[in-house]
Amino acid sequence: MSQEFEHKESMNEEAELEAREDVREEEAPAGEKTEEEQLEECRAKLCAACNVAAEANAVKLRALAEMDNFKKRLQREKEEQARYAAEKVLADLLPTLDNLDLALQYGGQSEESRNMMVGVEMTRTMLLDVLKKHGLVPVGQVGQAFDPNDHEAVGQEEAEGMEPGLIVRIMQKGYRLNEHLLRPARVIVSR
Q: How many CB atoms lie within 10 A of CB 25?
């Protein structure tokens, strides 16, 4: 009997505890929240905080990517600027090369003028070598196909033994700085 009594007593205690909890929930003032409501509110706040953290991380990653792209663009612009920094100076030197070419073309035939022409030729060669080191190369050669990207046709003439569209004569040499055309070659093209 004592076991039966103890069992009944423990059941009574459990029922009493449940009743107290029910009374507590009923007695809770209208402004206070139950544990479940408080737990749900905490979960909602935690989710909101996680969303804010995820958005902040996305903004951070975008900012880092933009910064990386900005650095790359600055580097490209710097390389481009360095590559073509000498363009203006080299363009100003082209008339000097033209004058050296004219001097060689129309130099005198006397012994004294031939010696001077050797010096002019050496000067021209040295100047072209220095300019080549900086990326300047001549454009256009006799016998080469006419290319409107590199050449400016100033006339046409019949040329025996040449196909139409080839350069017969160069009136003024053209020059290219790296991939950039400084001046097109002025040429006479065969018909």
A: 10
The tokens describing 12, both together, are: 């009574």
Residues forming a β-bridge with 157: 190
pLDDT tens per residue across all 191 residues of the chain? 555 555 555 555 666 656 555 545 554 455 677 888 899 999 999 999 999 999 999 999 999 999 999 999 999 999 888 777 788 888 889 999 999 988 888 887 777 788 888 889 999 999 999 999 988 999 999 999 999 999 999 999 998 888 999 999 999 999 998 888 999 999 999 98
- What CA–CA distance (Å, rounded) separates 50 from 42? 12
Separation of alpha carbons 165 and 150, rounded Å: 14
Q: Can you tell me which residue has the tokens 């995820």?
A: 54
Contact 97, 173 (CB under 8 A): yes
CA distances for 132 relative to 104, 136, 176, 179, angstroms: 20, 5, 10, 13
The residue to which tokens 């706040």 are assigned: 45
- Model pTM? 0.58
Alpha-carbon span 103 to 73, nearest angstrom: 46
